[in-house]
Every structure is written in C-alpha cells, then in structure tokens.
Design brief:
Keywords: Amino-acid biosynthesis, ATP-binding, Kinase, Lysine biosynthesis, Nucleotide-binding, Transferase. The protein is α/β, with parallel strands linked by helices and 412 residues long. It has twelve helices and 20 strands. The chain has two domains: 3-174, Acetylglutamate kinase-like (Carbamate kinase, 3-Layer(aba) Sandwich); 256-400, VC0802-like (2-Layer Sandwich), CATH 3.30.2130. The strands form five sheets. An eight-stranded mixed sheet has the order 3-6-2-1-9-11-12-10, sandwiched between helices. Strands 13-18-20-19 form a four-stranded antiparallel sheet, with helices on both faces. A four-stranded antiparallel sheet has the order 15-16-14-17, covered by helices on one side. The model has no long low-confidence stretch (mean pLDDT 94). Bound molecules: adenosine-5'-diphosphate, aspartic acid and magnesium ion (MG).
Length: 412
C-alpha cells in the first residue's frame, strides 16, 4: 500500500467525460488499497477564458482580484471530480487551497508556498477518503486567495506530496512522459525513462512547459519522487530523479527546450564608462522587469551597446525604461525585436564532454540559421535566433545530437 499524490492537468479534466475517466482511474488505485490525494487543474482553456474576461474589463486588473477570479476554475473541477468519485462508491471530499491550509506569501498571481498543515488531510486519509484538492491556489496569512503562477497545479501536487511524505507524486497529462523535446514539434522526439532533477529544472526554466519549474525545484529540494505520465494511456512515464539513480551512460545532451515568450532590447552608443551596466539595468529591475540573457558589445569611440532579453509582455515597458535611460546617459539609440526565440540544449553529460557547442553551432549554420545571442552554463547552452527558424533549429539539433536514438543502457 502506498500514498500517491496525483495531479490531473487541464486536458485530463477538460470535459465531464474526462472527469469521469479520471474518477475511474482514481477508484482503480483505491481498489488496490492505495491512499490517494488528487490535485486538479481547471478544465482546459478555462484559466485563459477567465484572464480574457478580466482583460475585457480593464487593462490592469488588480492582482488580488485576478486571483479571486482565476482560482474559480479549479473550484469547479474539484467538486465535479468528488461527485464522480462518490457516484462510484468511493468516499471523497473536495477542498480549495485555503481549506487544506496551503499558506503562501502575498505575491498575488505568483505566490510561493510557505507552509502546509497536513493534519486535516491525514484525518481524511485515515478515514478512508480520497482528498481532491484545487491546484494552483492558496491563501496568504490574511486569508486572501493567492495563485501560484501558470502551471501552478504541478507545484501544489509536489508540495502536498512533500508535506505528506507521499511515495510518489504523479503528474498525469496529455503526453506519456517527458520527451527529448516537445513531441508536438519534433515527430521523432523520444520519451525519456528517467531525467535528473537538474536537467528537468533547466528544461522547465528554458521553456518546456510539461512541468512548472517551481514544482521541479520543490521536488528536488525535498527529494519527492516525481513522475510524468499520461492520463489517457497506461505506461511507466518518466521518473524525475537524482543523478545517481540513473543507471545509464549519460548522453551528452538529454533534451532540447525552446521558448517563444521573449523579446530583445538594445541600447546602443552608450558611453563606455564604469557603472554604465548598472545605470542601464537597475532602472529595468526597479520596474520589476526580469532580464534573461545580457550581452555587452565592445563598441568604437568609447561607446558600447547592451542587448538583453525580457519577457514579451514586458517588451514595451522595457523599451520605455531604456528610452529614459538613454536620454539620461546620452546614448545613441534604443531598438528592439519581438520576433526572436530561444533554443537550448540541456544535459548533465555536457560537464564531461567538450565540443558540444561546436556541434550545436555547426548544426545551426548548416541550416543557415544566424545566432544572435549565446549563453552557457555547466549543463546548458542557449541561443537566440529569429523566431521563424525555431522549429527548423529544434529539429536540426535533435538530429545532430541523435536524440531520436535510445540511450545506451550501461552494463553494470
Ligand atoms: P497539463 O494541462 O496537463 O498541465 P501542459 O500543457 O501544461 O499539460 O503540459 C503538457 C504539454 O507539454 C504537452 O502537451 C507538450 O506539448 C508540452 N511539452 C513541452 N516540452 C515537452 C517535453 N520535453 N516533453 C513532453 N511534453 C512537452
Ligand atoms: N489552471 C492553471 C493554469 O492554466 C494552473 C494549472 O493548470 O496548473 O495555468
Ligand atoms: Mg501544466
């Protein structure tokens, strides 16, 4: 007998029929004697619909009210799933985030979980009930409803699994595991049996939305066994685990992530004096704009240029801030480009291999794709390219690193 925390994503609860199918699945686990805590997302498309509704009323909805609004999506699915379970004779109770005491900070729309009081859940489990919890939401210390950022139900599930010391946190979704890259973009993408927390964290932060980054972070920190599986077909899925648990020879590159959500801004003709980076980037960070990649070019005549990437939603604001800075510094020009994409190769195997960057650059150059920016860390290399070549780049890299071929099992 085990305790599983299972999360079912938007597509998995997208219709009444899907919710019934989830109930069947959960009953199956109960009938085998396992304890189950279920976390559900809103029905697919619902969160977007609610956000659009808000935007139809005001361009800048108050974050507190936004959270009151978008958290309703999950409240619908917990009630429906509890009903579907009860109909099958499976005792179940639904709870909102606040009701199961998921206490967060007060950063509306991107709150972080601070504390979970698991006693109430233990009592329900001891009484033989399935607990159905609304994902993505919590409350702050003043009782305000908060949400955890897009994709946040994954994090709810992992946090509950950590608090309850569950045997496994299972993320059921519309693909049957974590693939070498998004299987909707590359047909030959291959499901990975295992991936390390570290790699998964990079993949998530570099754009692979199969898991929310906070969920992976949390799972790594509390060593929660985490598995991604399909709601619609049987299978082992992908286990996210510690590096030492992977009995494979680590491939150089494990996966490819990409992101279309960024934009690039450049300020050129900046006087090349100590402190200029600070004078440019501080106002940007003061405006609460996150900067990703930064490149400073050596210019002529003691002038230099800075280029950096920001989220596309922040593009206009970032340009406005830079225009102000440019006037103050006497820089020459501010320009920008929203039609960019970031492609990254990720793998712990990169630590022990040289020449990975060369293979990457060769593959891109063979397709005539120009690299605009580069950034590297121990286990990843990211490049910014023109958005229109994104899919071509991902496919070219996937084949250059032979990701369609299964990894070699080590004979131990
Ligand atoms: P859910 O609604 O269940 O949370 P998401 O849409 O958030 O599902 O995540 C699943 C999707 O993630 C898949 O449909 C797939 O297109 C996408 N995805 C992106 N990168 C990967 C990857 N490397 N492996 C698997 N799926 C990926
Ligand atoms: N419903 C929320 C979203 O669409 C949270 C989630 O599904 O994980 O982002
Ligand atoms: Mg998701």
């Amino acid at each position: 007998m085990a305790l599983f925390v299972q999360k079912y994503g938007g597509t998995s609860v997208g219709t009444a029929e899907c919710i019934e199918a989830v109930a069947e699945k959960v009953c199956g686990f109960r009938n085998k004697g396992h304890d189950v805590v279920v976390v559900v997302s809103a029905m697919s498309g619902e969160t977007n619909r609610l956000i659009d509704l808000a935007n139809s009323i005001t361009e800048e909805p108050a974050p507190r009210e936004m959270d009151v609004l978008v958290s309703t999506g999950e409240q619908v699915t917990i009630a429906l799933l509890a009903m579907a379970l009860q109909k099958r004779g499976c005792e179940a109770r639904s709870y909102t985030g606040g009701q199961v005491s998921i206490l967060t900070d007060s950063m509306h729309t991107k709150a972080r979980i601070r504390k979970i009081d698991e006693q109430g859940m233990r009592d329900d489990l001891d009484a033989g009930r399935v607990i159905v919890v609304a994902g993505f939401q919590g409350v702050d210390e003043n009782g305000n409803i908060t949400t955890l950022g897009r994709g946040g139900s994954d994090t709810t599930a992992v946090a509950l699994a950590a608090a309850l010391k569950a045997d496994e946190c299972q993320i059921y979704t519309d693909v049957d595991g974590v693939y070498t890259t998004d299987p909707r973009v590359v047909d030959s993408a291959r499901r990975l049996e295992r991936i390390t927390f570290e790699e998964m964290m990079e993949m998530a932060s570099l754009g692979s939305k199969v898991l929310q980054i906070r969920a992976v972070e949390f799972a790594g920190k509390y060593n929660v066994p985490l598995r991604v599986l399909s709601s619609f077909q049987e299978g082992e899925g992908t286990l996210i685990t510690l590096e030492e648990n992977i009995a494979m020879e680590q491939p150089v590159v494990s996966g490819i992530a990409f992101n279309r959500d960024e934009a690039k801004v450049t300020i050129s003709g900046v006087p090349d004096t100590p402190g200029s980076a600070l004078r440019i980037l501080k106002p940007v960070s003061d405006a609460n704009i996150d900067v990703d990649m930064i490149v400073q070019n050596v210019g002529e005549d003691n002038r230099t240029a800075f280029t950096f990437t920001v989220h596309r939603n922040d593009f206009n604001r970032a340009k406005d801030v830079l225009q102000r800075v440019s006037d103050e510094l006497g820089a020459r020009e501010v320009s920008g480009d929203t039609k960019i994409a970031k492609v990254s190769i990720v793998g712990v195997g990169m630590r022990s291999h040289v020449g990975v960057a060369t293979t990457m650059f060769e593959a891109l150059s063979a397709e005539g794709i120009n690299i605009q920016m580069i950034s590297t860390s121990e286990i990843k290399i990211s490049v910014v390219i023109n958005e229109k070549y994104l899919e071509l780049a991902v496919r070219a890299l996937h084949s250059a690193f032979e990701l369609e071929k299964p990894a070699v099992e080590e004979t131990m």
